[in-house]
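From the shared-data thread, chain only:
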Amino acid sequence: MESFDGRQILDEIFKRVRIDFKLGISEYLAALKALNGGWCSNEEDCKETLQLLWCQSPSQQEQFLGIWDVAKVTLATAVRQTSEEFKQPSKSQPPLKSPSTLAEIKTTTPQTTEVWEVPSTPRFTSLPTRAPFVATDTETPTAFPADFPLSRRAMVYHWQYVNRPVKDGCQDILDVDETVKIVASQGFFLSPVYTRQETNHAHLLLLVDRNGSMTPFHYVMRELVETANDESSLQKLDVYYFHNVPATSIYRDPYLTESILLSNLLKTCNTNTSVLIVSDGGAARGYRRFERFEATTRFLDLLRQKTNQVAWLNPMPQQRWYRTSAQLIAYRVPMYPMTPQGMSRAIDTIMGKKLS
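Structure, as tokens:
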């Protein structure tokens, strides 16, 4: 293609991968928003952007690259055929005859009817076909387990314990003990005693690491956020995203496009705010970088000026933290592996409970 058409390649790729990758209208609109925002100005940027938005595993990334090449060839062939059709000269029309000539032809030429012979049996010919694309596994197997130890059901179960009950609801619950106490003291019954319903006043701030080494865990992070939103009784839940380290700005959306200042976010926190950070802390790639540790330490110091109820969930197993940035960060904040036991201990920490 002479000029790159991002919308055309986006539509072609989406039609090819939407079923296998389980994509919906929200993923298409996110890619369209990135296209309109200038993230797909050339072929390489467009390929990288769509791969980040739509691929959830290394195998899907490999499959995406093959589909991208096939879509490029298909679009280039379509454009070339269209240009050749426009270049073909139109058939020349015969010269118009005068009325006298037409009259002579009419009188001299006998009227004949042409009979078209219809073949008795249809002629079948082979149609061109393209071999289907078959995704192959990568040569180096991924280091992450296929079945993540923390299931969706376990997430739903543990979110129920993020609870800070306050009796400020409707006063329609019968208090049997108080009613019996009043009757015993007065010697007769006048009216029952009612108490107020309890309301969950817990405020959870969920900070999720995105992209980079956290790409293989995007599906798990999406399940974690969905269960916190839909399956919990939290009155106030704030979900924000960052890349590697919460710097001066963090993001409202998982695509890291809608930024917000960290200082403005910290203004909404108080001593009753529970903060749960989800990140590998560099353990996925085995890196030990002091720059990341120092930046994370500065963020934790700012956060502890507002609340001490902070915990860290690491999707990597604890034995992978050794000699990485995660091992250093674990000395500054309670860090737990992303397992049912680890999530239970993390929730006890952010709710201010003492661990045995």
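The two ends are 65 Å apart (CA to CA).
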